[in-house]
Amino acid sequence: MTQLQLSDKLGVSDKTNSKGSYFMSKINTVIFDMDGTVLNTLDDLTMSVNYTMEKFGFPQRTLDEYRQAFGSGIRRAIELTVPDGTSQEVIDEMIPVFKEHYDVHCLDKTGPYVGIIELMRELKRRGYKMAIVSNKIDSAVKELNQKFFSEVIEVAIGEQDGIKRKPAPDMVVKAMDELGSSAEEAVYIGDSEVDFATAKNSSLPCISVLWGFRDKAYLEEIGANIFAKEPSDVLEILANWN
Ligand SMILES: O=C(O)COP(=O)(O)O
């Protein structure tokens, strides 16, 4: 779909409805989560964790089981996946095995969700600054950003030593610093409870997407209340606020 068709479909060009009282100033910055929000990474993650499980003699899991396990980074996903009683030492050994496999295979089946690139291009055209903040390994985040979003995303930050991962606000704060934005000007977009908590901890409103790794009933249970059913809904939500 072209940018023009996208704008037409949404009828967004002249939307100037007032935003809710929560928002004190114009939103000009969008911080995206990566897995389950801009990229469907589930097949490649499943393959690499299953490879690691097999190497350590543990049972493999299904894609749906991994869907629930991801959100807090690879260590947590492995902790949730290994048999009860597996020691932290064994998990320490599993992480580099996963990383080595995932580094080679993170692009096998991974790609942007339908409509994401169009959304980002339209946001850029409208002057929004954008970043990706993810709990996945920083090297993979940078590689995937470079591959899919380099024309539109200025800042991409993943899990790395010396900075607390989500739901701590630290990576979001770092991204906003790099973009030159303040919390009052930014919105966070993610698919999980970790993202919702991250937005809250960073004092940002959260748009929860419904195409990712969690379902709506669950997101409602944890308190999410602004939903995008498809990427183009984000434009409509932002237009209403601004
Ligand atoms: O790797 C994970 O567990 C989650 O990554 P995300 O923060 O991009 O959703």
TrEMBL record:
One of its GO terms (biological process) is DNA repair. GO terms for cellular component: cytosol. This is Phosphoglycolate phosphatase. It comes from Butyrivibrio hungatei. One of its GO terms (molecular function) is phosphoglycolate phosphatase activity. It comes from the Bacteria. Pfam families: HAD_2.
